[in-house]
Write a structure and sequence with these properties.
The protein is of the alpha/beta class. It has 17 helices and nine strands. The protein has one domain: TIM Barrel (Alpha-Beta Barrel). Helices cover 48% and strands 12% of the residues. Helix 4 runs parallel beside helix 8 and helix 11 runs parallel beside helix 13. It is globular, with a radius of gyration of 19 Å. It binds coproporphyrinogen III (CP3). The site of coproporphyrinogen III (CP3) has 23 residues, from strand 3.
Length: 345
C-alpha cells in the first residue's frame, strides 16, 4: 500500500512528494471517453462499476499517488430535489433556481446511506482494488449554493450576490441546509471507506475577505468540526483538504476552517503561501496549462515548484485547478514522473 499521500496530509515525513491531479478522471483520457460513449455523464455517475473504472484509470495509466472518487459535486444538490442536466459544451443546468424561502424549504436532506448508495458502493468496491488512498469529496456550501441560486454556472454571480445582500436570511437558510446535507454525505463516504476528503470551493474567490468570512467560511468550519467530532472507522483521523479556488487573499481565513491541508491555485507562489498557512499541509499548485510546456521546461518547472515547497509541513503536488480536457495525457505523465524522480529523498 502506497500511503505517501496520507502521510503528507498529516505532515509526516515521506520518501518522495505524492502527486495527484484535480479532475484526473475525465475527458482528456481516451479511455474515459470510451466509457462515456455509451451513456450520459449523469448515468455514468450512478453506475458504480463504471465509476470504479473511471476512478482507476488515472491511477493505472498515469501512476498518481491518490485516487479521487468519480462523481460530481452537483450530485448531492440533485438528490436534495433539484433536477439537474448536463448540456454538452455548456455545463450543468439546474431546472429550478433556489432564490426564496419557499424553494429553500422544499429542499430535502437526503439519507446518503440509502438514497446515494451508488456513491457508497463505488467507494466500497474501490477500496478492494486500490493500492493508493481514496479521496472522497463534496462541494463547499458556497460553491454549491451558487449553482442552485444561479441555476448553473455564472461569470458574475449576480443572483447569488443579490440574494446575499438583499435577502441574507434566505441565503443563510439555504447554506444551513446544504451544510447539513454535506455533513451527512461526507460522514457516509468516510464510513464507506474514503480515507481523506476534499471540499471544493471553486467560486470562493468571487468573495472579498469580509464577505468570505461571513457568508462562506463558517459553513466550511462547521463541516470540518462535525467530521472531526466523529470516531473514525479505521481508527485513523481522516484528513480534510480545503481548496478555495482563486483564494490567495483568503489563505489565513481558510486555515481557520480547521482543514488539515490547504489547496492553492497557481496564482500565488507556493513558498509565499506556505509562509502564511503555518501548521497546515499544502496542496498544489502548477498552472494546468503549464502541462503544455516542452518536456524539459515542464520538468524544470516541477523541480522549481518542489524547491519552493521545501519548507512545507507536508506537500501534496497537484495542479492549481482541474486538468483541462484538451491536455495530452502524456504531458500529465511527464509531470507525475518528474515529481516522483525529482523529489526522491
Ligand atoms: O477526477 C476527478 O476529479 C473526480 C471527479 C470530479 C468531477 N467533477 C467529474 C466531472 C470532481 C471531483 C468534480 C468536481 C466538480 N464538479 C467541481 C469542483 C472542481 C472544479 O473544477 O472547480 C465543479 C465546479 C463541478 C461542476 C461541474 N461538473 C461542471 C461545471 C462541469 C461541466 C464543465 C466541465 O468542466 O466539464 C462538470 C462535468 C464533469 N464533472 C465532467 C467530469 C468528468 C465532464 C463530464 C463529461 O462530459 O464527461
Amino acid at each position: 500500500m502506497n500511503d505517501t499521500f496520507l502521510r503528507a496530509c498529516r505532515g509526516e515525513s515521506t520518501s518522495f512528494t505524492p502527486v495527484w491531479m484535480m479532475r484526473q478522471a475525465g475527458r482528456y483520457l481516451p479511455e474515459y471517453q470510451a466509457i462515456r460513449k455509451n451513456l450520459s455523464f449523469l448515468e455514468l455517475c450512478k453506475n458504480s462499476e463504471l465509476c470504479v473504472e473511471a476512478t482507476l484509470q488515472p491511477v493505472d495509466i498515469l501512476g498518481v499517488d491518490a485516487a479521487i472518487l468519480f462523481s460530481d459535486i452537483l450530485i448531492l444538490m440533485e438528490q436534495m430535489g433539484v433536477p439537474l442536466e448536463f448540456h454538452e459544451n455548456h455545463g450543468p443546468v439546474f431546472l429550478h433556481t433556489i432564490r426564496d424561502s419557499k424553494a429553500v424549504e422544499k429542499l430535502r436532506i437526503p439519507d446518503p446511506a440509502t438514497q446515494m448508495d451508488f456513491v457508497m458502493e463505488t467507494i466500497r468496491l474501490l477500496r478492494r482494488e486500490l493500492q493508493v488512498p481514496l479521496i472522497g469529496f463534496a462541494g463547499a456550501p458556497f460553491t454549491c449554493a451558487t449553482y442552485l441560486i444561479e441555476g448553473g454556472s455564472s461569470k458574475i454571480f449576480w443572483a447569488t450576490k443579490k440574494l446575499i445582500f438583499t435577502k441574507p436570511g434566505v441565503y443563510h437558510a439555504l447554506m444551513e441546509k446544504i451544510t447539513e446535507a454535506t455533513i451527512l454525505y461526507l460522514k457516509e463516504q468516510i464510513r464507506a471507506g474514503a480515507q481523506a476528503v476534499q471540499l471544493f470551493d471553486s467560486w470562493a474567490g468571487v468573495l472579498g475577505p469580509v464577505d468570505f468570512a461571513e457568508y462562506a467560511l463558517p459553513y466550511v468550519t462547521q463541516i470540518i468540526a462535525a467530521l472531526k467530532a466523529d470516531d473514525f472507522p479505521e481508527g485513523k483521523e481522516v484528513p480534510v483538504i480545503y481548496f478555495a479556488n482563486n483564494g490567495s487573499t483568503l489563505l489565513e481565513l481558510s486555515v481557520s476552517s480547521g482543514a488539515d491541508v490547504i489547496g492553492i491555485d497557481w496564482r500565488i507562489n507556493i513558498a509565499d503561501a506556505i509562509a502564511r498557512i503555518g501548521d497546515c499541509a499544502i496542496q498544489g499548485n502548477l498552472d494546468p496549462f503549464a502541462l503544455l510546456l516542452s518536456k524539459e521546461k515542464l520538468r524544470a518547472r516541477v523541480g522549481k515548484l518542489l524547491k519552493d515547497a521545501a519548507m512545507a509541513k507536508g506537500h501534496i503536488f497537484n495542479l492549481g485547478h482541474g486538468i483541462n480536457q484538451f491536455t495530452p495525457p502524456k504531458q500529465a505523465k511527464i509531470m507525475i514522473d518528474a515529481v516522483h524522480e525529482l523529489s526522491q529523498k
